[in-house]
Automatic annotation (TrEMBL):
Alphabetic keyword roster: Cell membrane, Membrane, Transmembrane, Transmembrane helix, Transport
Nucleotide-binding keyword on record: no
Membrane topology of the entry: Multi-pass membrane protein
Record flagged with keyword Transcription regulation: no
Family: Belongs to the binding-protein-dependent transport system permease family.
PROSITE patterns cross-referenced by the UniProt entry: ABC_TM1 (PS50928), PROKAR_LIPOPROTEIN (PS51257)
Protein location: Cell membrane
Principal location: membrane
Family matches, as CDD domains: TM_PBP2
Alphabetical list of SUPFAM superfamilies matching this protein: MetI-like
Pfam families in the record: BPD_transp_1
InterPro entries named in the record: MetI-like, MetI-like_sf
Name of the molecule in the record: Carbohydrate ABC transporter permease
Amino acid sequence: MRTTRPRSGDRVRWWVYALLALAAFACLFPLYWMFIVATTDTATAIKLPPEIVPGGNFFHLAGLVFSTVPFVRSIVNSLVVAGSIGVGQAVLCALAGFAFAKMRFRGRNALFLFVVLTMTVPTQLAIVPQYMIISSLGWVDTLQALIVPGLANAFGIFWMRQHISSAISDEILQAARIDGASTWQTFWHIAFPLVRPAAFVLGLLGFVTAWNDFLWPFVVLKSPEMYTVQIAIKALQNSFNIDLGLAMSGSFLATLPLLVLFVFVGRRMVAGIMNGAFKG
């Protein structure tokens, strides 16, 4: 029986693996260095040549983190905010994307163009009017001040609109209307299940973005019991000096939930991104 030798073009060159290994090292080394600093002190962190072996102070510094700021409450607050934003973006952006992709109404293209153009506006420019609105609603120093503005965004609407346009045919929706399904039933029972992987990825991106957000929570939150995890890390520093070991311990503890999340859903996230990349 003849065996077919792989063609030279089908074999992956050794340098491809070398580049991938180098890229993986570049991505993982900051996390490793953060853990090293989280187990040492400031003097060790700035020493040259740098230490490459973790120290033995991690649990001591982690205990200082929990005793200095309400870190557990901050993690819970971040989970509530990031989880609400992730779910909200997955559903609301899919709903808006469905309207722009499959519904016909006057001004649809102009409105979608306006939504896309809002992505060119820097986030910092919206802080003052957004704070004025939140203040008039009496939401300053509350979690809804973080959740409500993040429930939908222009990128998510654009993402879902493009995916729905290519993934769902008009014939399927017409058949649902002939069977008597309402617009909401058509979306929820037919369109949304078909684009659920893309919505899942969008929700994860929204979760991670909300978890890492610092500027808006720093502006709107005042009391320690309302702090998110990023603001709690800022509270570990005083105005005159920075304890790098303490700050990096808080940063490493704040990163652990994201690492656990990626371990469980990383494969599904990559599959959802690739599924959206090769549609149409």
